[in-house]
Amino acid sequence: MTLQYGQVLRYLPDFLIGAAISLVIALVAFALGLLIGLVGASVMTYGPRMARWGVRAYVSFFTNTPQLVQIFFLFFALPEFGILLSPVQAVLIGMTLNAGAYLTEIQRAGFQSLPQAEIDAAETLGFTRVQTVRHVIAPHIIKALYPSLSNQYIIMTLGTSMAAIFGVEELTARALNANAISFRSIEIFSLTALIYIGLTIIASAILYTFGRLAFRVKARAF
């Protein structure tokens, strides 16, 4: 068997476009999931009992069922109820809801890690509620959560590969198409793996640098 990478390099520009689509899907789903997680964590920490049960049921469902099954349900079952989603919509909604459940748990842990003594000290110093949130609560929670949130984003970037099953033209889908045309499986998928490794290294480096500069916190580098 002779490896012929020269034949598959012509697919590289197409793969890079697919990689960009993967990054956009992961970024949008992560940003929306972060908002859901913030609301969910706030409700679970400070909300009334009934609301906490509702959030707990949502988190339990989405963290105890495969993400792929969740997207299958959105894409194939919702049309039975008159709700028709495009492949991109189904993947984005599925990934967002799944991320929201995990990010709820991550952010709830951050809220609970806040020492009451720091809030008491802020009140003793005469801080207003806004000043307490800005100078005490927010810095503590960001530093506590940033590494976990960074890791979650990296996981979500790699998880976009399941979008290929639904026909979304991200990186893995373009690799499958190229493989069907060229039959150079080893070269195609080793090149695809290298691109995914490049994506995670670049994303990790950006997150690490941003965390150091913005919050003086170390996140995953590589």
From TrEMBL:
Record's bilayer topology term: Multi-pass membrane protein
Domain ABC transmembrane type-1, chain residue ranges per copy: 19-207
Annotated Pfam families: BPD_transp_1 (PF00528)
Keywords, in A-Z order: Cell membrane, Membrane, Transmembrane, Transmembrane helix, Transport
Entry coiled-coil feature ranges: none
Membership in a protein family: Belongs to the binding-protein-dependent transport system permease family. HisMQ subfamily.
This protein's name: Amino acid ABC transporter membrane protein 1 (PAAT family)
